[in-house]
Amino acid sequence: xxxxxxxxxxxxxxxxxxxxxxxxxxxxxxxxxxxxxxxxxxxxxxxxxxxxxxxxxxxxxxxxxxxxxxxxxxxxxxxxxxxxxxxxxxxxxxxxxxxx
Length: 100
Description:
Blueprint: H1 3-18, H2 22-31, H3 35-57, H4 62-88
């Protein structure tokens, strides 16, 4: 299995964890805190970005490597906007997602 496919698998795990297995995230957040979930998602984003970067450096399936890098960066931006800005007390940019 090549490195970009490993990054793609990590991203699939991320999307499954926020969609189908969201009840696990909610359980961990309610019983522990938001930090284990947040750092797990950040870990998946950074690792998938690194896998895409390594695939690009090794020239292994360049199109997939670029896609994995871009989605890895989007996962990291998701972490920043959902977890860090909320902790800092900064209003989210899209008010439809959050109630007052």
